[in-house]
Design a protein that fits this description.
heterodimer, A: 252 residues, alpha+beta, Ubiquitin-like (UB roll), Fumarate Reductase Iron-sulfur Protein, Chain B, domain 2, two-stranded antiparallel sheet, 8 helices, 14% strand, B: 219 residues, globular
């Protein structure tokens, strides 16, 4: 197998949030198959800069699969064709010579496009501010392990906490629903002793914020779990539903 | 009243309404299937006729009938409202979307399968239910069943519709439990399996009747 491939890239270009966008096609030859997808984008941008053209705006930060910034819809899949990965961890060896790759931004009312492939994921921050926290007294640090948590519960909470807030669940859901994200955040705190004080209030407020941000409804297709780079389980959504109903019963 | 609107107005609440009405309709399907399977007594519809007589003469059944109509209407209107909301959540679609890589066809097309079932339901009620219930038809229900299934076109349409119904149930039944929060990592596979078995029983049960008439196993 050759170590370089030639690609045709069909990329969404959009000047700003209020302008209409369109696809632009680029040829990129001699792409090393050892490159990550974002490195390939860097190479393309260097080429565009040398040609005195506007480089393509795309989000990226850690490039090690934990920041959740690299929101790209690649060939009809969130973060590309590989399971359980972000775009930065997708390598060009998963594409073949002469392939056309379509790259789009996340598409959701809750995630407006700012420029090219960059979307505004502030809606997730607003949902978090509505209840994705625990209140603690300030002062000297508490002793570690002062509150005992059984291992299976700690593990389940950690599975929810693994969510990096990348928005792939929203991007891939046919309804642009943010249920997997919200459920992971509600779940992780509902399971732990520290999260009990605000438990009912949290789920009510976060669901309200989720609805107000304009995300769709969950129809349990399971697409979110299949495309989540951290493979957060849809069982968290079942827990979110349960927490929401219980909170309604308890509060009134 | 305000606490009720508080539960049912947000998206999760509306989904709960979908789940509850859906599960009630599943219970109705079981009852309906029980009635149809009475035809297998193969007694020229004696048991079947007896059953329809009891149904029409029991006050409780008459009351439940209205709950059933209500459930159908709520299930459909709620589905329509949720679908409109979902379409609004993605004003600009993707140029390329490979949904088949991450979800099943029937789970994504509940609206389509539901609409086909609604169409079937209208035809089905027109054939069997309305003449008896509202138009004063006092003839034998069994004779009408035999007559309807003599037409291979109607039988084919009937079988196709219950297959579509099976696909709808295969996703809907397990999804209802998920929406009501009655699922977790270890129960989910069992619930899914039960949903599929339920869908199979309903589809095979209903579809078997016209097949049995066609091959003259039932007369």
């Amino acid at each position: 197998m050759s170590d370089t491939i030639n690609l045709t890239l069909k990329i969404w270009r959009q000047k700003d949030a209020s302008s209409p966008g369109k696809f632009e096609t680029f040829k990129l030859d001699g792409v090393s198959t050892h490159m990550s997808f974002l490195e390939m984008m860097d190479v393309l941008n260097e080429k565009l800069i040398k040609e005195n053209k506007e480089p393509i705006a795309f989000d990226h930060d850690c490039r090690e699969g934990i920041c959740g910034m690299c929101s790209m819809y690649i060939n009809g899949r969130a973060h590309g064709p590989l399971k359980g990965t972000t775009t930065c961890q997708l390598h060009m060896r998963h594409f073949h010579d002469g392939q056309t790759i379509t790259i789009e931004p996340w598409r959701a009312k809750g995630f407006p496009v700012i420029k090219d492939l960059v979307v505004d994921r502030n809606a997730f921050e607003i949902i978090m501010q509505a209840g994705g926290f625990v209140s603690v007294n300030t002062g000297s640090p508490a002793d570690a392990n002062a509150i005992l948590i059984p291992n299976p519960i700690a593990e389940e909470a950690m599975d929810g906490a693994a969510c990096i807030g990348c928005g792939a669940c929203v991007a891939t859901c046919k309804n642009a629903s943010a249920m997997l994200f919200v459920s992971a955040k509600v779940s992780q705190l509902a399971l732990l002793p520290q999260g009990q004080v605000e438990r009912a209030e949290r789920v009510m407020n976060m669901v309200k914020a989720m609805d107000e941000a304009g995300f769709g409804n969950c129809t349990n297709t399971g697409a979110c779990e299949a495309e989540c780079p951290k493979e957060v389980s849809v069982s968290h959504i079942a827990r979110l539903n349960r927490e929401y109903l219980m909170a309604n019963l308890k509060n009134r | 009243m305000s606490s009720i609107t508080k539960i049912f107005s947000p998206t999760i609440g509306r989904k709960v309404l979908m789940a509850l009405t859906g599960l009630f309709l599943c219970v109705f399907l079981c009852e309906h299937l029980y009635g149809n399977l009475l035809l297998y007594y193969n007694d020229h519809g004696h048991q079947f006729e007896l059953y329809t007589h009891i149904l029409t003469r029991t006050l409780l059944i008459r009351i439940v009938e209205y709950v059933l109509f209500g459930s159908f209407i709520i299930h459909m209107i709620d589905a329509l409202m949720l679908t409109i909301n979902n379409k609004k959540a993605r004003p600009i679609g993707y140029a390329m979307q490979k949904s088949s890589e991450n979800s099943s066809w029937y789970s994504r097309n509940m609206g389509l399968t539901g609409s086909i079932i609604l169409f079937f339901l209208i035809v089905h009620l027109r054939t069997f239910f309305f003449p008896h219930r509202f138009l004063g038809d006092t003839g034998s229900m069994f004779a009408e069943v035999v007559e309807a299934f003599k037409n291979p076109l109607y039988s084919g349409f009937y079988i196709l519709s219950v297959i579509i119904l099976g696909l709808h149930l295969n996703h809907g039944a397990q999804s209802a439990f998920h929406t009501l929060g009655l699922s977790n990592k270890s129960y989910a596979p069992i619930i899914k399996l039960c949903g599929t078995v339920f869908a199979l029983i309903i589809t095979l049960g209903f579809a078997s009747v016209p097949v049995a008439f066609y091959f003259e196993f039932l007369k």
